[in-house]
Automatic annotation (TrEMBL):
Alphabetic keyword roster: 2Fe-2S, Iron, Iron-sulfur, Metal-binding
Name of the protein: NADH-quinone oxidoreductase subunit E
Gene3D superfamilies in the cross-refs: Glutaredoxin, NADH-quinone oxidoreductase subunit E
Protein's UniProt keywords contain DNA-binding: no
Cofactor(s) it depends on: [2Fe-2S] cluster
Length: 164
């Protein structure tokens, strides 16, 4: 996994947004591709860019905010160097993900939905990884793992950290 800078200066964010907007100018339905491109380049879609995006696309800020807040993969701040997504959907719930969540929160010292202050790990809820037959499931840095317990998840994290 590539390491993303944790913060960009506001002028860098705006410059990136203007480049992306120019690249998609005139494209029908450009909002989602624009948001994805900005997030790919900055690691997030900073809220201060929403008015710029809205103005360029002749949309209201509320429309742009609605799209960003609706899709769970868009984020306002860059993720940690490692991203652990833990499925919270029904199949995983039936296989004990609530207890797994509590155990991981305790062992990681990090609540679900948060990123460590040092930027080393983001621990995120997701609501389906498409791996229901192998619940509970996690995705670590884009790699799917099923039928996991806390010890396995911690071992996966340690292995990824050692490779970084």
């Amino acid at each position: 996994m590539a390491l993303l800078p944790q913060r960009f200066a506001p002028e860098q964010c705006e410059a990136v947004a203007r480049e992306v907007l120019a690249a998609h100018r005139g494209q029908p339905g450009a909002l989602l591709p624009i948001l994805h491109d900005i997030q790919d380049r900055l690691g997030a879609v900073p809220p201060e860019l929403l008015p710029l995006i809205a103005e360029d696309l002749c949309l209201s800020r509320a429309e742009v905010h609605g799209v960003v807040s609706f899709y769970h993969d868009f984020r306002a701040t860059p993720p940690g160097r490692q991203v652990l997504k833990l499925c919270q959907a029904e199949a995983c719930q039936s296989m004990g993900v609530k207890a797994l969540t509590a155990e991981l929160e305790e062992k990681l010292g990090l609540p679900l939905g948060e990123t460590r202050e040092d930027g080393s790990l983001s621990f995120e809820p997701v609501y389906c990884l498409g791996n229901c037959a192998c619940a509970p499931s996690v995705m670590l840095n884009g790699e799917l793992h099923g039928r996991v317990d806390a010890e396995e998840v911690l071992a996966l994290l340690a292995e990824q950290e050692a490779q970084a």
